[in-house]
From TrEMBL:
Keywords annotated in UniProt: Lyase
Gene Ontology molecular-function annotations: 4-amino-4-deoxychorismate lyase activity
EC assignment: 4.1.3.38
Enzyme class: lyase
Name assigned to this protein: Aminodeoxychorismate lyase
Source organism (scientific name): Haloechinothrix salitolerans
Protein origin, superkingdom: Bacteria
InterPro entries xref list: Aminotrans_IV, Aminotransferase-like, BCAT-like_C, BCAT-like_N, Class-IV_PLP-Dep_Aminotrnsfr
TM region(s), chain numbering: none
Record flagged with keyword Lyase: yes
Family: Belongs to the class-IV pyridoxal-phosphate-dependent aminotransferase family.
Keyword Glycoprotein: no
Length: 281
């Protein structure tokens, strides 16, 4: 099932072509996006997602994003989607068909991929891959758009295919000095002695909305949380290693670079329960 609503309020058929062939999002991946989980009719972390969309758009010199218009567009999708059916809600804004033209902006509701649903339960195997970026690069070279959620995800998708070739489900990117960065579509979270750790966004990674929500939930459940640089060794020696993202939520990593990790099913279950409790408050 799919529901498509453009930012101007028009509701269109997602099975029919809607994008011009010269759209710069299509031609160059020139645009920004967000992916939001909708459960029980409620879009999770909508405000942080819209804030990040605004920040990403500003980094790409796209027009200012009208958050209220986006909210109305999201509501239009929600009214057309069954309340009891989980949804992936994607917000996309491209530069449009020519540099002086109107951006193309739409919200698309879709079903959650079966593979992601399975991974939430079973956990995943992950390999570490070099991202080829070094310390300070995000600040030194803002045109690289590190930390923006741009549509240019070809590298991220290639990393997942490389992980698959190596017999794993997903990847964790490392900086050239071995510092842990993020997954191609997720944030890295490590558990040790009832403290959760995640790398700082200053390393050039995307600040994760689900990681922030998890840290909030974990603190309420009595955990400590720290945002600090992590080394590969920290991943191996952790009590638990997790990848978080809006749709996969908290996915347990059971194998790293072919080596099994300590069994973290218990802490995973506890963190998932705390995370879910955040949305029942
Ligand atoms: N890092 C990258 C590169 C991502 O693409 C994503 C989400 O897709 C994340 C981190 C996690 O972000 P969030 O928790 O907001 O979904």
């Amino acid at each position: 099932m799919r529901v498509l609503v453009f930012l101007d309020g028009s509701v269109e058929d997602p099975a029919v072509p809607q994008v011009r062939i010269d759209d710069l999002g299509l031609q160059r991946g020139d645009g920004v996006f967000e992916t939001i989980l909708v459960r029980d009719g409620h879009p999770r972390e909508l405000r942080p997602h819209l804030d990040r969309l605004r920040r990403s758009a500003a980094m790409l010199d796209l027009p200012e994003q009208d958050v209220n218009r986006w909210r109305r567009t999201v509501d239009e999708v929600l009214t057309r989607w069954p309340h009891d059916r989980e949804m992936v809600l994607k917000l996309v804004c491209t530069r449009g068909s020519d540099p002086d033209g109107e951006p193309l902006a739409f919200a698309l509701g879709m079903d959650v991929d079966e593979k992601i649903l399975r991974a939430r339960e079973t956990g995943i195997a992950v390999v570490t891959l070099d991202r080829g970026i070094d310390e300070g690069l995000a600040e030194r070279a803002p045109w690289l758009l590190l930390g923006a959620k741009s549509l240019s995800y070809a590298v991220n998708m290639a990393a997942i295919r490389e992980a698959n070739r190596r017999g794993a489900d997903d990847a964790i990117f490392l900086a050239t000095n071995g510092t842990v960065l993020e997954g191609p579509t997720s944030t890295v979270v490590v558990a040790r002695d009832r403290t959760l750790y995640t790398p700082p966004p200053t390393t050039g990674i995307l600040p994760g909305t689900s990681q922030a929500a998890l840290f909030r939930a974990a603190q309420r459940a009595g955990w400590h949380t720290k945002v600090e640089p992590l080394r590969t060794q920290d991943l191996r020696t952790a009590d638990g290693l997790f990848l978080t993202s809006s749709i996969r939520e908290i996915t347990r990593v059971h194998t790293l670079d072919g080596e099994p990790l300590p069994d973290a099913r218990e802490s995973h279950a506890e963190l998932v329960a705390a995370y879910e409790a955040e949305y029942r408050r």
